[in-house]
C-alpha cells in the first residue's frame, strides 16, 4: 500500500537525518569545548571555533525541521483542528500539508541561488567559500519537501486521530 511504503521511506530517511544530526551536535559540542578551553586555559586565540559553531548550529537546526516533520512534531493548529468534524479536519490537514510543501519548495528554489552566491564569498577564518554553509538552506528545504510529501501520503490527513482518541473526542 502507498501509505505504508511512504511511511517506511520517511522513517528510513529520518533515521539517516537523525544520525547526521547527532554527528553535527557532537561536532558542535566538541567545537564549543575547544573554544572554551582555548579562551580560558590555553589562550591560543583560535579564530575558527566560534564561526564553525555558528554554521554547525545552522545546519543542525535546519535539518531538525525535517526530523520534526517526519515525526509530526511541528507546531500545528490543534485547537482549531480538534473543533472541526472529522472530514473537515482531514481536509484542512491535507491543505496545511500542501501549503507547507509549497513553502519549502519555494525556499528550496530561491535557496539554490543563495547557496550559489556563497561560492563568491570567502570565510577567511575557515579558508573556504561559504557555499557549503549556505547550502544548508536549499538542502534542508528539499529534505523537508520530501518528508512533507511522504508523511502526507502516509497519514492522508488522519494524523490527529490518535490524539483525538486520547482526548475522547470523535474522529
TrEMBL record:
Briefly state the protein's biological role: Part of the tripartite ATP-independent periplasmic (TRAP) transport system.
Q: Which GO terms describe its molecular function?
A: transmembrane transporter activity
> Where can this protein be found?
Cell inner membrane
- What membrane topology term does the record carry? Multi-pass membrane protein
One GO cellular component term noted in the UniProt record for this chain: plasma membrane
What interactions and quaternary structure are annotated? The complex comprises the extracytoplasmic solute receptor protein and the two transmembrane proteins.
Q: Which residues cross the membrane?
A: 20-40, 52-70, 91-112, 132-153
Q: What is this protein called?
A: TRAP transporter small permease protein
Q: What family does the Swiss-Prot or TrEMBL record give for this protein?
A: Belongs to the TRAP transporter small permease family.
Q: Which residues form the Tripartite ATP-independent periplasmic transporters DctQ component domain?
A: 32-155
Indicate whether Transport appears among the record's keywords.
Answer: yes
Q: Which UniProt keywords apply?
A: Cell inner membrane, Cell membrane, Membrane, Transmembrane, Transmembrane helix, Transport
What InterPro entries does its record include? Answer: DctQ, TRAP_DctQ
Predominant cellular place of this UniProt entry's protein: membrane
In which domain of life is the source organism classified? Bacteria
Q: Does the keyword Aminoacyl-tRNA synthetase apply?
A: no
What does the record list as GO biological process? C4-dicarboxylate transport
Pfam family name, one: DctQ
Amino acid at each position: 500500500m502507498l501509505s505504508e511504503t511512504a511511511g517506511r521511506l520517511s522513517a528510513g530517511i529520518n533515521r539517516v537525518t537523525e544520525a547526521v544530526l547527532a554527528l553535527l551536535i557532537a561536532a558542535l559540542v566538541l567545537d564549543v569545548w575547544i573554544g572554551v578551553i582555548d579562551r580560558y586555559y590555553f589562550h591560543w586565540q583560535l579564530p575558527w571555533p566560534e564561526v564553525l559553531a555558528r554554521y554547525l548550529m545552522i545546519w543542525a537546526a535546519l535539518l531538525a525541521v525535517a526530523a520534526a516533520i517526519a515525526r509530526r512534531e511541528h507546531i500545528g493548529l490543534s485547537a482549531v483542528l480538534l473543533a472541526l468534524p472529522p472530514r473537515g479536519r482531514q481536509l484542512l490537514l491535507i491543505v496545511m500539508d500542501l501549503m507547507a510543501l509549497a513553502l519549502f519548495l519555494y525556499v528550496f528554489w530561491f535557496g539554490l541561488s543563495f547557496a550559489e552566491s556563497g561560492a563568491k564569498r570567502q570565510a577567511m577564518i575557515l579558508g573556504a567559500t561559504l557555499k557549503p554553509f549556505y547550502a544548508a538552506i536549499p538542502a534542508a528545504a528539499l529534505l523537508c519537501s520530501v518528508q512533507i510529501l511522504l508523511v502526507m501520503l502516509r497519514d492522508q490527513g488522519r494524523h490527529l486521530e490518535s490524539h483525538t482518541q486520547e482526548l475522547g473526542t470523535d474522529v
